[in-house]
Amino acid sequence: MINKEEVRKMLKPIPLANALTAVTVAAYLICWIIFRISTDAYNFLMNSLSLGADVASFFQPTHTIQSLLVALVVTGITTWISGFFFAWLYNRWAKS
Q1: How big, in percent rounded to 5, are the helix, strand and coil portions of the chain?
Q2: CA 28, 33, 34: angle at the middle one, nearest 5?
Q3: How far apart are CA 36 and CA 69, in angstroms?
């Protein structure tokens, strides 16, 4: 039987997935805004995230509003599903 203390330690899958999705979508929007303001700053940010490797030159993104919306939907759905299953697995494994 699960006691109240164990229940408090469990992650709630839906709130965790919502929070993770909100943070990920916000970070994506910030990167998109940086690109729209300054391509050089965007390239610097992408290369910095890759430990200095010149990955920004590998692709030439087309940052239109349509591509932004598609990317936000795909990223949001993928992040929400990942966050939900992360919490679900954590709770299952925390019981054992």
Answers
A1: 80, 0, 20
A2: 95
A3: 15
Domain range spanning residue 29? 22-95
- The amino acid occupying position 67 is S
14-58 per-position pLDDT tens digit? 999 999 999 999 999 988 888 788 878 877 877 888 887 777 777
Domain count, the chain: 1
User: Could you give the CA distance from residue 31 to residue 46 in angstroms, rounded to a whole number?
Assistant: 9
What's phi and psi for 60, nearest 5 deg?
-115, 95
Cα–Cα distance, 14 to 84 (Å, whole number):
6
What is the reported pTM? 0.74
